[in-house]
Design a protein that fits this description.
- The chain has five helices and 22 strands.
- The strands form eleven sheets. A two-stranded antiparallel sheet has the order 1-2. Strands 3-4 form a two-stranded antiparallel ribbon.
- With 281 residues, the protein is of the alpha+beta class.
- Helix content is 13%, strand content 28%.
- A hairpin with a 6-residue loop joins strand 11 and strand 12.
- InterPro entries: LIM_FHL1/2/3/5_N (IPR056807), Znf_LIM (IPR001781).
- Pfam families: LIM (PF00412), LIM_FHL2-3_N (PF25076).
- Keywords: LIM domain, Metal-binding, Nucleus, Repeat, Zinc, Zinc-finger.
Amino acid sequence: MSTSERFDCHYCKDTLLGKKYIMKEDKQYCTKCYENLFANSCEGCSLAIGCNCKDMSYKDRHWHEECFKCAKCSHALAEKAFAAKDDLLLCTECYAHGYSSKCTTCKKTVMPGSRKMEYKGNSWHETCFLCHRCQQPIGTKSFIPKDDGYFCVPCFEKQFAYQCCACKKAITTGGVTYQDKPWHRECFLCISCRKQLSGQRFTSKENYPYCLECFSSLYAKKCVGCTKPITSLAGAKYISFEERQWHSECFTCFQCSVSLVGRGFLTQRDNVMCTDCGREK
């Protein structure tokens, strides 16, 4: 037989003709070399897991099928559900007995692999976590704790939430109180321009809320000098004389423009002037 016709183990070079062999990365190995080079060591018995054995693996660890057992009761775990705790593999019964939490409602164990709900250190079976009002499972929906119970959002709104006097919908978070009535923040608006008033300075007239700009524009007296509104709501100072008003900075001599605040002045028809300009007339 020529060299090109030979079929040998890639490692020991013994012929593989008529023998069992294993392929790895396009190379053939006799079973002995393959086990020496590549076989995993069993976590249970520390022996190599041979070619004729099933290799059971979990997180880069390996076992013979017969060594893949619960660390507590020694029941076989092959093709069964199991859980890991501190590098030990446990059947679901042993894990549940030793480590699983108890359902706050029914007091039974929440088995590994089953869906459970957790909130502030408490656990429930999914079917035991119920709305206190409608008694339906809350599941993954939003809920609101109240006293010793838990409520789905619709039930909480029906039983406890204030209703906004503007949109008539429930107020679940925050809100504004005005004239002893509740409002959503986004519903509390200036009656004139509809700007949101929450967190802003505002005033009212005839029980309606107004932003300062609208109130000034609609109801404030106008400055004789600049004709713009005068309002004390924004802290503006003004001068009043014979039912006429001026902003402090607008109360000036109409002829020389000197400020008349805190000093004597004269009138000439609808105008005011300083005494110096008045004497020149």
